[in-house]
Write a structure and sequence with these properties.
single chain
């Protein structure tokens, strides 16, 4: 099963009324994967279980972005390179340049030379 298939099924089921959802679940010809998603939705609605609905929504639209604050000791600004000398900073930049070139190599398409 592809992610697109799951998303299509879940999107379709989430648009149904409770009665329509029951009909899908009671239909003998409903595929098991559709039944599985429908049962998660139905139980979430019946019990008010936000975890079930959150699970589906996280899969469909992604989880809510979480703010992350980076700070140094005692909430001071985060300055990981402040203690480095100019030569050490130059060395770090060179290491990053090598890393970036490596990323370019592994992400570039392979060209057939034939």
């Amino acid at each position: 099963m592809l992610r697109d298939d799951f998303e299509r099924i879940a999107h379709n089921l989430l648009r149904l009324t409770k009665g329509e959802l029951k009909q899908v679940m009671n239909d003998e010809s409903t595929p098991s994967v559709t039944l599985l998603v429908a049962s998660v939705i139905a139980k979430g609605l019946a019990t008010g279980d936000q975890h079930r609905i959150t699970f589906l929504l996280d899969r469909l639209i992604g989880p809510v972005a979480k703010a992350m604050e980076l700070s140094g000791p005692q909430g001071e600004p985060f300055r990981p390179f402040e203690h480095l000398s100019a030569d050490e900073l130059t060395d770090k930049i060179s290491q990053l340049d090598v890393y970036i070139e490596h990323l370019k190599l592994i992400s570039s398409p392979i060209i057939d030379q034939d």
